[in-house]
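Q: Convert this sequence to structure tokens.
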Amino acid sequence: MVRRALSPQNLGYAQADKRLQILQLVGEQGSISQAARSAGVSYKAAWQAIHTLTNLAGMPLVDSAVGGSGGGGARLTPAGVHLLEAAQQMDVARRGVLARINAPS
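A:
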């Protein structure tokens, strides 16, 4: 019997990873609508992802300003930056565990 390698996708983190990707894109691009376009989701889906992460974190992750003649925008709060740093560390740890599990015995 051939043993198949496990991947991050096998562990069911895709939904959380997509939310984190949207949060990261907001930080990089300074716009929820631009982050949505870059992530390939609707503005509503991007806003819901940010809302869900904010509810789970229990604190604001994004400061946003409504558009208009002066323009709008969005930026990560310190908590948003901290969350992304923690998520990156967890991803490194997850990949390390998978590499050890998938290593030939």
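The longest strand covers residues 62-65.
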